[in-house]
Amino acid sequence: MAETLGDTGIPGATVARLPAYLRALRDLEGRGVETTSSTELAELAGVGSAQLRKDLSFLGSYGTRGVGYVVDSLATYITSALGVEDEHRIAIVGIGSLGHALANYSGYGTRGFEVAALLDASPDVVGTEAAGLVIEHVDALEEVFARENVTIVVLATPAHVAQDVAERVVEAGVREILNFAPRALQLPEDVIVRSVDVGSELQILAFHAQARALANRGRGEEGQGAETRSAGA
């Protein structure tokens, strides 16, 4: 049975695909396209059309026979479903090289987010600026979150401090965390953590690259064997 999120009745896997649908719709809007079919939208989002129709049915959107989906209306509908109609205020904790890159990401505003606070523990970093914000000390985390009305935290700390910082984030009232620290976080069940481990993702790609190389080598050896048998016939 598919896991659903909260009281929405929407499967978690469906929620994970909604941003791709919204991105595709924004692209269509930018090209002046007013209506789209499930086939076109699915192709742009990188899913099957049957999967797209099923996902949108969870939102109560079924399109119109012979017309398809009205692009701006569906984009508004998905925006509402994702909860990004109103801007979410983000705090980034850990302003090393990755934290700086995340702070300077240019896509927040168009997707319903604003970086409201930057925090770090290093005296070499605290008091400096990044992305137009002064980096504050992590010791003031609770005060900063309350002052800036932070609703989502991006965690880019070293692994050995990530658990402690995450616990403070939760105690400060934030229940949504995007975790870039390379470790699993043990937090209450009502806390939503999305983890991005670049090293692990690269290892998975390395596995597939190795498997492809072995398969190609196997096919090459089979080809050589066939040539040898032909020559000896």
UniProtKB/TrEMBL annotation:
Pfam families: CoA_binding (PF02629), Put_DNA-bind_N (PF06971). The keyword RNA-binding does not apply. NAD(+) binds at G94, I95, G96, S97, L98, G99. Keywords: Cytoplasm, DNA-binding, NAD, Repressor, Transcription, Transcription regulation. It is found in: Cytoplasm. SMART domains: CoA_binding. The keyword Kinase does not apply. Residues 83-184 form the CoA-binding domain. It comes from the Bacteria. Residues 20-59 bind DNA. Homodimer. Belongs to the transcriptional regulatory Rex family. Modulates transcription in response to changes in cellular NADH/NAD(+) redox state. PANTHER family: REDOX-SENSING TRANSCRIPTIONAL REPRESSOR REX, REDOX-SENSING TRANSCRIPTIONAL REPRESSOR REX 1. This is Redox-sensing transcriptional repressor Rex. It comes from Oerskovia rustica. The lineage of its organism: Bacteria, Bacillati, Actinomycetota, Actinomycetes, Micrococcales. The gene is rex.
